[in-house]
Amino acid sequence: MSDPDAWARACAEDLEAEKARRRAERGAGPGSAAEEFRKLFDAVAGKVSEGFGNPLLAGQAARTVQQLVQQAKAAVEPVVERNPQVFDHLAAAGGELLAAYRSAVEGHETRWTRKDAPAEEPPKPPREDGEGPGTGQHIDLD
């Protein structure tokens, strides 16, 4: 007698093996939003510090920037440690804002690019009395 769940188990094993192969190929996936924020902060701090490797900007300016980077890192790190879920919420909120923006833009693009959209109203010719557009009635301001 054959096992009725053998196919399901084989598929699940194949899927897990494929996932493991892809993880090994690409390396670890992105971490939590807090971990990604730390990586971003470290990368930006490194680039700022490298930017002051220029001999013209070296010296006191480089030391000042490095000191500011270290102070910022010391201020941010405890916040990230205490509230890692905040960054997850901020990342989710950013995704929602991006989705809302895309939706709005797609709606406008659809209206702008429709071929059956009504043509714009042609501009009105200037009035014969030289005044701007209007009813043609004189308004006494006195």
Provide a compact summary of the structure:
The protein has helices at 6-26, 33-51, 60-82, 84-113. 65% of the residues lie in helices and 0% in strands.
Number of E-type strands:
0
Q: Helical proportion?
A: 55-70%
Based on CA atoms alone, the radius of gyration comes out at: 31 Å
Unreliable spans are none
Query: Which series of helices and strands comes N to C?
Result: HHHH
Oligomer: single chain
Beta-strand residue percentage: under 5%
Structural class: mainly alpha
Outline: flat
Beginning-to-end CA distance, first to last residue:
106 Å
Mean pLDDT: 76
- Major sheet characteristics: none
The total of helices stands at: 4
Description:
The mean pLDDT is about 75. About 65% of the residues lie in helices and about 0% in strands. The N and C termini lie far apart (about 105 Å). The protein is flat, with a radius of gyration of 31 Å. It has four helices and no strands. Helix 2 (about 35-50) runs antiparallel to helix 3 and helix 2 crosses helix 4. It is mainly alpha-helical and about 140 residues long.
Outline the fold blueprint.
Layout: H1 6-26, H2 33-51, H3 60-82, H4 84-113
Helix pairs in contact: 2-3, 2-4
Which structural traits does this protein have?
142 residues
